[in-house]
Amino acid sequence: MAWRNHSTITEFILIGLSDDPYIEALLFVFFLGIYLLTVMGNLIMLLVIRADSRLHTPMYFFLSNLSFLDLCFSSVTVPKLLKDLLSEKRTISVEGCLTQVFFVFITPGTEAFLLSVMAYDRYAAICHPLLYDQVMSTQFCVKLVLISWGLACLNAFIIVLLAINLDFCEAQTIQHYTCELPSLFPLSCSDISINVDILICSTLLHGLGTFLPIFFSYARIVSTILSISSTSGRSKTFSTCSSHLIAVTLFFGSGLIRYLMPTTGSSLDLLLSLQYSAVTPLLNPLIYSLKNKEVKAAVRRTLGKYLLNGFHRYLQNFTFKHN
């Protein structure tokens, strides 16, 4: 590993969310519930989109990838948080910390690109409906997802290089519940000014590079919606975008503030991280299912089919045993 010779730290101590055992017990139950609901909600979205042929469209292809990313992102931080809430010693190895830094960047980084791609998909569907099937072909959609993963992976690799080049002499307590690069900077005994500048530039390029396409896509979408004479037509068209707009606001709002603000180890830092790493992955499947009639209908059809098949198998087994 490329840590310098006088960096003798082999593990870090995470302060966690609380030192009170009773509060930790309550937090464990709370975040365990959030994590289980997140896993269940996103798995149901993946299952429904795969099982229902009516949802085999570009929009739901991207939505299934978003559910997979939310599942991964939540699994990067929440299981470790749950473990630490039950442990007296909250530590993480240097290698484990670097690994977490990498995945904390690659999963939300890919999600940012994917939200941008989903905005372009809505732009193509609403502003150029006659060309939509031709523009958003299956091959093109797959390429957009692969490019999103590739660019996010490159950005995460650069971020990890910044962490590898830090020198840690004595301080080893991370003022956070997880390993995030801004929380590692205060522990370094070397000059971090260049690292901070690179992180800010990377965050701005990544954030603006994904947010600006969303902004311009929706500027054109709003212009097209306002040109529709029918009030019901405007409402119906906008409803297809409202779920995505809520997801964008939740994700970019907390993520950009967290990485552009100076790290202070305050409760605000923890709340912002919890917002985009634990709460948003839980809310996304709810947002897209509660505000989308097609998804709600597909959930009812899919769950009904599986429940009916399970009931038929139960009756067959019951009849076989009693014959």
From TrEMBL:
Predominantly, its location class is: membrane
Keywords of the record? Cell membrane, G-protein coupled receptor, Membrane, Olfaction, Receptor, Sensory transduction, Transducer, Transmembrane, Transmembrane helix
Domain G-protein coupled receptors family 1 profile, residue spans: 41-288
**Coiled-coil parts of chain:** none
Q: How does it sit in the membrane?
A: Multi-pass membrane protein
Q: Which residues cross the membrane?
A: 25-48, 60-78, 98-120, 140-164, 192-216, 237-261, 273-290
Q: Record's Gene3D superfamilies?
A: Rhodopsin 7-helix transmembrane proteins (1.20.1070.10)
Q: Could you tell me which PROSITE patterns the record lists for this protein?
A: G_PROTEIN_RECEP_F1_1, G_PROTEIN_RECEP_F1_2
Check the UniProt entry and state the signal peptide residues, or none: none
- Gene Ontology terms, cellular component aspect? plasma membrane
Check the record and name the CDD domains matching this protein.
7tmA_OR8S1-like
Q: State where the protein is found.
A: Cell membrane
UniProt similarity note: Belongs to the G-protein coupled receptor 1 family.
Q: What function does the entry list?
A: Putative odorant or sperm cell receptor.
This protein's name:
Olfactory receptor
Q: Which organism is it from?
A: Canis lupus dingo (dingo)
